[in-house]
């Protein structure tokens, strides 16, 4: 048996729609694999009743097929589905790393990113890599058609997950398909600032760089209390806050010593809107880790 832990991730980070992603040090999925004549899947953990175990409808089934690596696969979910924290990507990333090792396929971590992305396509309909890249590689990642660039970063983060469901399909349907030149210039500036901040592990630059006037405002209406929660996070010491992936999780970047206050403030702001929430005090994490 081979065991792999793969982390939750946060995609987009405001200004980097479908490009930026970051691994979180918690929560995470744990996947166990054993060689078998055909692929079978068992899912336990948070939200497991909503996840199909049919290999043709599960991300890890697609990964096993892509690697020609049939296996008995057991997934212990730590990342809630439909959370905006890369739940399906965590499973796909863990399976890709585990099966590559189990069957000695010899692929590099970078080469496993498109394999795991094919698994993502089972859920989202498209092979997006903005979540699977950091889930496999760790750190902060920039995904383009030319490949993945990884940056080490050390930041304190809070991921606040409300008891709200936002479907990826709905979140994508509200994204505008045309952008004014002025908005494009502003977004490029923010994205560049965020990358510089990640390279320096500078929470102030990253917080400023998360600002986005295109995608985030269109999605904010899907999250009850979004503006109030972001304002509460900043009042408590966060340098910036934005939607994590498709939502509903809100990700905040924290200065040193403010993480607990930010987490409490975000939960209280949701509660004032009658929405229950939980907060993960987390940071930039490592990629998929193999345990034998």
From TrEMBL:
ATP binds at residues 80-90. Its main location: cytoplasm. One of its GO terms (biological process) is threonine biosynthetic process. Residues 60-139 form the GHMP kinase N-terminal domain. It comes from the Archaea. InterPro entries: GHMP_kinase_C_dom (IPR013750), GHMP_kinase_C_sf (IPR036554), GHMP_kinase_N_dom (IPR006204), Homoserine_kinase (IPR000870), Ribosomal_Su5_D2-typ_SF (IPR020568), Ribsml_uS5_D2-typ_fold_subgr (IPR014721). Pfam families: GHMP_kinases_C, GHMP_kinases_N. Pathway: Amino-acid biosynthesis; L-threonine biosynthesis; L-threonine from L-aspartate: step 4/5. PANTHER family: HOMOSERINE KINASE (PTHR20861:SF1), HOMOSERINE/4-DIPHOSPHOCYTIDYL-2-C-METHYL-D-ERYTHRITOL KINASE (PTHR20861). Belongs to the GHMP kinase family. Homoserine kinase subfamily. This is Homoserine kinase. It comes from Halomarina halobia. The gene is thrB.
């Amino acid at each position: 048996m081979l065991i792999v832990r793969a982390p939750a991730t946060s995609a987009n980070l405001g200004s980097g729609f479908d490009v930026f992603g970051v691994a979180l040090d918690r929560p995470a999925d744990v996947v166990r694999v054993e060689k078998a004549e055909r692929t079978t899947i068992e899912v336990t953990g948070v939200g497991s009743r909503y996840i199909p175990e049919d290999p043709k409808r599960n991300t890890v089934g697609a990964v096993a097929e892509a690697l020609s690596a049939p296996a008995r696969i057991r997934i212990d979910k730590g990342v809630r589905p439909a959370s905006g924290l890369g739940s399906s990507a965590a499973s796909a990333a863990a399976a890709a790393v585990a099966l590559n090792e189990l069957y000695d396929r010899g692929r590099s971590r970078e080469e496993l990113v498109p394999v795991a992305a094919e698994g993502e396509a089972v859920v989202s309909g498209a092979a997006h890599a903005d979540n699977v890249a950091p889930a496999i590689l760790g750190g902060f990642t920039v995904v383009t058609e030319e490949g993945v660039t990884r940056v080490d970063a050390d930041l304190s983060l809070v991921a606040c997950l409300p008891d709200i469901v936002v479907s990826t399909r709905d979140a994508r349907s509200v994204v505008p398909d045309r952008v004014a030149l002025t908005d494009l210039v502003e977004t490029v500036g923010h994205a560049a600032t965020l990358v510089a901040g990640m390279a320096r592990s500078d929470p102030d630059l990253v917080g400023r760089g998360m600002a986005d006037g295109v995608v985030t405002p269109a999605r904010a209406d899907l999250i009850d209390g979004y503006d109030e929660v972001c304002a509460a996070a900043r009042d408590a010491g966060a340098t910036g806050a934005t939607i994590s992936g498709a939502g509903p999780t809100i990700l905040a970047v924290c200065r040193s010593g403010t993480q607990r206050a930010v987490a409490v403030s975000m939960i209280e702001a949701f509660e004032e809107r009658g929405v229950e929430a939980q907060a993960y005090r987390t940071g930039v994490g490592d990629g998929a880790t193999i345990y034998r």
